[in-house]
Amino acid sequence: MALSFVSTVQALTYTKVADYLQNSSLFQNSLRAYPDLPKFDILYGSTLVEVEVLPWEVHPWEKADLATVRATSCVTIGSTIDQDLLYFLLTENRRMRFGAFHLDEANQVLFAESVLGGENMDLMELQTCILSVVTIADTYDDIIAQRFGGYRALDSGILA
């Protein structure tokens, strides 16, 4: 299956992200591109980050073709999803400058941050987005696993 895009801006953003990641001394040695999705995996230290180039279809501008780049990392797997954990995540989200914690369909705790794509996408902002996700995931995996059970993504075998 070939890589396809919803818009020309999504395709342009994907090309910019791919060029940056493939040429970045920070990420090029641990980069994996998906052949059929506008998505990359980066293993940075002990943290796996997914970088997706997504169309932004519902936005405040009538005649704009927009895309975003979202970096996501799994923080813990198997944590007890209860009121205490949810309160903790929401309280911590308030402290975050960028990005937020959320749960996926399998109730894994994730952290994600997005930047605006397109022709004027700032590569320093993209780098900061990815490194921020790495830092938060690496900092909070021990805290959440210790307080709310489960285990760090690193310990789950998903990084193998």
What does this entry look like structurally?
The chain is α+β, with helices and mostly antiparallel strands and 160 residues long. Helix content is 37%, strand content 28%. The chain is built from 4 helices and 7 strands, in the order αββββαββαβα. Strands 1, 2, 3, 4, 5, 6 and 7 form a 7-stranded antiparallel beta sheet that branches. Strand 5 and strand 6 (109-116) form a beta hairpin.
Summed up, what is this model?
It is built from four helices and seven strands, in the order H-E-E-E-E-H-E-E-H-E-H. It has helices spanning 8-23, 83-95, 123-148, 153-156, and strands at residues 31-33, 39-44, 47-56, 66-77, 100-103, 109-116, 151-152.
Architecture blueprint of SSEs:
Blueprint (H helix, E strand, L loop, with lengths): L7 H16 L7 E3 L5 E6 L2 E10 L9 E12 L5 H13 L4 E4 L5 E8 L6 H26 L2 E2 H4 L4
Number of helices: 4
> What is the general shape?
globular
- For the secondary structure, the number of strands is 7
Rg, rounded, reads: 16 Å
The biggest sheet amounts to: 7 strands, antiparallel
Global structural class: alpha+beta
Task: List segments where confidence is low: pLDDT < 50 over at least 5 consecutive residues.
Answer: none
- The topology string of helices and strands comes to HEEEEHEEHEH
Ends: how far apart? 25 Å
The overall average pLDDT, rounded, is 91
Strand content: 25-35%
Q: In percent, how helical is the residue content? A: 25-40%
Q: What distinguishing features does this structure have?
A:
160 residues, alpha+beta, 4 helices
